[in-house]
Structures
1.
Amino acid sequence: MSLDVVSVDAPVVPAPAPHAAPVADPFATPSLRALVGAPDPLPLPAASWGAAEALLALDEARLALDLHLPDPQVVSALTTVVLRAGAYAVKVFAPGTDPGHVARVADALAGSRTAVLPVAAPVVTSWGVVSVQPWLVATGTADWAATGRLLRRFHAAHAHADLPTWVPLRRLEPQLAGLPEGAADVLLAARDTLLDELSTLHLPLGVGAVHGDVSPMNVLRHGRRHLLIDLDFAARGPREYDLSSAARRADAGEIDPVTYLDFCRAYGHDVRAWEGRVVLDRIALLGGVAFRLWDDRRQGRDLGWLAPAVADWRTPL
């Protein structure tokens, strides 16, 4: 099913799924430095946007959705809002989200047996962009070994999916808005260094579909199947990035050595010996600093931790 973008005054008419053909290496051209300056298709919400606005968005979107959506319950609210409406999970993206991007991810992964995907085209409303997926009831939990097996299948099944190019740290600049100029300059320079290094890396696993936030928390066990959820940032990028999240957790002691080895055996690869891993780890860490800054300012928390963090990033690698 191919998902066209609709607004509240247009019907939802799925089109046939496109044939998945190989696409060019996204790290060849244009450069990541050029892509990172392009408009963010998934912008962060304003401080005033949240669950109340998402509920209004769903009410407006009902006009374009040929689905039975009973009164919703708020499940979570952060950069997006997730609602449960009977048999459906409704994800509402902030105003300014590019519905074409949301539709492209769904189209590229159409027919997937490894991921939960939308059942209708994204709907643009006055309060945000609405996407609807089936609400699948979890029948158990996933461990790291199951996550590794599922990730291997996902990477293999969607090796040539025409997903958007992975552009790490795209949100950094807006997240730094309002910082003292010197602090912002340090973090932006660190980003540029990391992107330049990323473009030179030898990638043993190659470029293909990546989920972008791999952990058992983003795996749903439904019956005898395991499925990836939360594919907002699915993209075409280095497969090593999906494996590096488990390696970082192992390094931090969040998962024990046996559990980590089970994950690597299930997937069939361990990234810890790869020399390029430090670049991916630092990209993830810088993204974590920027998100913490955004969230702390949104919640009115103290930023006493920021100055030492900025000092650390004077040496990106």
2.
Amino acid sequence: MLLDINKIDLNNKNPRSNISDIELDNLADSIRQQGIIEPIVVRPNGARYEIVVGERRYNAAKKAGLDKIPVIIKELNNTQVIEWNLVENIQREDLTDVDKGKTILNMMEEYPEKYPNITAVSKSLSIYPGRISQWVATAKNLTPEVQRMVVPPTATGHGKRSAGKISGYTARVIATKIKDPDRQIKVAKQLSEGKFTHREEQKILFSVAKEQEKSVDEIFKEFEQEPAEIPFRLSHMQPILDGIKTQTSRKSIDPKIREGTIIRANLWQPAFADLIVKKIEKKKLGDFTEKDAKREGGYTLEEFKEVWKNLHGKWDPDEVVNVIIFDKIKR
């Protein structure tokens, strides 16, 4: 049914701590052109109605100038409203871990009989208790400054993340492994610059947590002085050692990897070879030749296409990748 937008109110049970202005503007533009495709869910509140699910659509509809919007009316109590909000946003992955953790803590504080512990919350939401404990840790253990830096999973897709922000993974590790507030802030700020790969972030975070006698700055300085590392598949180890594989193509590369630098080739740990970078170039996959395929590990071009698809899902001839040409250093 359609409902007068001026009869609808926001609710204070929504777990979202903020809504991006850009995201809201884009949604408002879409609503102007196509309308609201998915109705919002509301509940009666006297002579008016209160939003249960769909606050973004409601705000965007107001911005788009709509007088009436499609709604579904549900008779729900406060507990059910919280659950509906949390489940919907978790499924859409547009809440931060901190928002999820704060909502779960609120559920446990307001309704202790229904949610006496993490296990009860886990059963109600059908979510693994270990993950819920991690969300709660980000809400309880992180400093407010670090909490504000955390972005939802939707903001880290395809390796992209805004400057000054950290991923949910980084936040969870900091919350569970690093207790000192100053160390939390320092490591989060440096990682938020986006200079490190996921693998490098892991190493830095665990070093900061384990090596308490060292300052965060010392750990970052030591890490920056170490040779860069590139992980390879086990099937590539012998071709590299035999000098057959002399090229690797990556969607992104560590900024420390430059022509003339020495890098370490590893599977996990330890490194199995040191490589000297001869050349780095950007190249469309569609421009790869039989020579490229051979340097990638003794493949034909068709074989290399299959290897690429197994690793990355598809072969897009227009995709530009980083091609690193190297020689193995004899030990």
